[in-house]
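ok so i was messing around last nite and threw this chain in just to see what happens. nothing serious, just curious
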Amino acid sequence: MTDEHMELLTDNCVRRAVELLAIDSPTGYTWLAAEHVTDTYRTMGLCPEITKKGGVLVCLNPEVPAEDSLLLEAHLDTLGGMVTEISSTGRLYLTPLGGMEPNNAEGENVRIVTRSGKIYTGTFQMRNASVHVNGDYHTAKREYKSMEAVIDEEVSSREDAEKLGIMPGDIVCFEPRTTVTPSGYIKSRFLDDKLSVAILLELAAQVAAGEIKPARRVWEHITVFEEVGHGGAASVPEGVCEAISVDMGCVGNGLGCDERKVSICAKDSGGPYHYEVVSALIEAARRGGADFAVDVYPHYGSDVEATLSAGHDLRHGLIGPGVYASHGYERSHRKGVSSTLRLLAAYLS
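result:
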């Protein structure tokens, strides 16, 4: 691929990511985003299916024999919250969906999705959040038992909230605050893992258009339960012998990756990734001209580890564009997107 063509594909990836980030999809409330992904595949002339768990599975090149197929996995579900209790004053106490850290989410705008489909806005903040009233504001620990969602409606009692149709079990979506800077940085909550979903969508578009010609059959599985540990546990097509999770690449102290690179994970908290797969990914990155780092992640688990834990016999790997401030207000860069796409294109070819 020429540099000019890669810039165009990177633009497409960023556009697709911005579209996905605008669709709320915390774990357990993902069907709207899954429908968007399904419709996108169909516009490419592909034939996606919604799995029983609500994910999206599609074959990019069904004309190729199924033997030794490759499965690429990325997840559409994000962090979020769920109403666990309504206080006597009509404030909402939450339990997290996935690893949403309360100290990272303080002061964030939220959307409360009722079972009737009505959506209310609010803010997630400390209880007794006025600094001029709360003498313990600066020292209080930020944790779910000391935080609440305040509804943007005239509510002063539990009954007032219930009259709106709000109840325990309602999903709470956090505002992503997506922005793309002129210098190429992509900032948003939930780049993990909508940025990589966007990359897989663009990869699929290039395969469907005949621009990338994989040497073997390739499937994409967009999962919807990764943040709670079982996204990739099912829906492995017959003939798949290798699976690669395309998730975020970790950026932080002691790691070589930054937001402008693609990270190849050699080991995470679940153990080492398949040696031959990691070696082949490194070679593909070099061959494709991708700026990359090989890293060991201290606190990480991936879809493909769930696939292995479910008993599937296959080789496995993990890559992703560098993302800083994971599970917070995250940041990546279009160069990291480009390098991820270069690596995948070289690996498939």
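not much to say yet. The chain has a mean pLDDT of 96.
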